[in-house]
Amino acid sequence: MSALLEVADLHLAFGGVKAVDGLSFDVGEAEIVSVIGPNGAGKTSAFNCITGFYRPTSGRITIGGADVTRMRTSAIAARGVSRTFQNVRLFGDLPVLDNVRAGTHLWLRQHVFDALLHTPRYRRTEQEATDEAHRWLDFVGLRGDRAGAARNLPYGEQRRVEIARALARRPQLLLLDEPAAGLNHGEKRELLDLIRRIRELGTGIVLIEHDMGLVMEVSERVVVLNFGKEIADGTPEQVRQDPAVIEAYLGSDDDEVSGDGGFGDSGFGDTGEEAVRADA
Ligand SMILES: Nc1ncnc2c1ncn2[C@@H]1O[C@H](COP(=O)(O)OP(=O)(O)O)[C@@H](O)[C@H]1O
Ligand SMILES: [Mg+2]
Questions:
Q1: Ligand closest to the CA atom of residue 223
Q2: Which of 127, 153, 170 is where one domain is finished?
Q3: Pocket lining: 163 vs ligand 1, CB cutoff 6 Å
Q4: CB of 38 sitting under 6 A from ligand 1
Q5: How far, in Å, is the centroid of ligand 2 from the Cα of 178?
Q6: Per-residue DSSP letter, 265
Q7: Is there a single domain that holds both residue 25 and residue 45?
Q8: How far is the CA of 102 from the centre of ligand 1 (A)?
Q9: Does residue 183 share a domain with residue 155?
Q10: Do 178 and 219 share a domain, yes or no?
């Protein structure tokens, strides 16, 4: 049986910059795989290739065994791939609810004539979209105002709205680009729980994340990128002890990755769970 997602020897170059330089990994159903590495390592570029936003220089990407390497974003989305962005991308002026309803349009199709004539079928479908959006907002635990403009929500809640919209597409594979960035400890703990509940739906998840406590606690496998190259791929335990990984992180000045400069303090060592559970 083929994996949900297979990435094989992916390369992406921008002029002289090798953003992704030989990345291979796969993700099964209900599996969580994290992609980590310093800023500029090529993590987001890999997501952009998987979603069809960038065309890889070489390599192969398959979804459920089907080659999607040269497919358009819309065709890849229709195959059940959904994502969130490193910098939250919502329709800021639109109500929270409408942002999530937008996700349902992938599978809840309106017919032009029904829409023009406002037929009972049109109204039923619109109601279904609204109900579905509320279900996903409940699922992500959004407590804020759903009728108000998305831009007025606190940042952590905007991130949840984005995840709800991605889930409203009913994806088989969900790509999360730094979902914990900007969240406080309590919010990170809730995110950990949310990611696990998404897996329970049977959804495969690829997680790009700098919070090592979160990564080590939630992932089945971890892929490590450094300057576009894959330097490790294994269980959290294997990766945390890998000399090449330790070297890449210790050799980095990147505050976001190394925290206050201490390898263990970043949550990468024995304190792994503390970063997520600090204020439990
Ligand atoms: N559209 C682009 N044009 C040119 N260079 C890019 C583009 N997108 C990313 N890069 C470069 O590719 C490298 C990897 O970037 P990125 O994938 O954003 O890294 P990460 O997400 O791991 O921080 C960086 O050197 C970045 O400057
Ligand atoms: Mg990135």
A1: 1
A2: 170
A3: no
A4: no
A5: 7
A6: G
A7: yes
A8: 28
A9: no
A10: yes
Cβ atoms within 10 Å, residue 40: 15
Q: In angstroms, rounded to a whole number, what is the distance separating the alpha carbons of residues 99 and 221?
A: 32
Residues 97, 130 contacting (CB under 8 angstroms): yes
Amino acid letter for position 12? L
Bridge partners, residue 226, by sequence: 229
Strands of 58-63's sheet in order across: 17-27, 5-14, 58-63, 66-67
Can you give the pLDDT of all 280 residues of the chain as single tens digits? 579 999 999 999 999 999 999 999 999 999 999 999 999 999 999 999 999 999 999 999 999 999 999 999 999 999 999 999 999 999 999 999 999 999 998 777 778 788 888 888 888 888 999 999 999 999 999 988 999 999 999 999 999 999 999 999 999 999 999 999 999 999 999 999 999 999 999 999 999 999 999 999 999 999 999 999 999 999 999 999 999 998 887 665 544 444 433 333 343 433 333 334 333 3
- One domain for residues 177 and 237: yes
**Which letter, b or e, does each residue of 107-135 get, where b requires 16 or more Cβ atoms within 10 Å of its Cβ?**
eeeeeeebeeeeeeebeebbeebeebbbe
Q: Determine the residue type at 131.
A: D
Ligand 1 neighbourhood includes 159 CB (under 6 angstroms) = no
Choosing from 119, 142, 170, the residue where a domain stops is 170
Q: What is the CATH number of the domain that holds 257?
A: 3.40.50.300
Global pTM reads 0.88
163: containing domain: 95-170
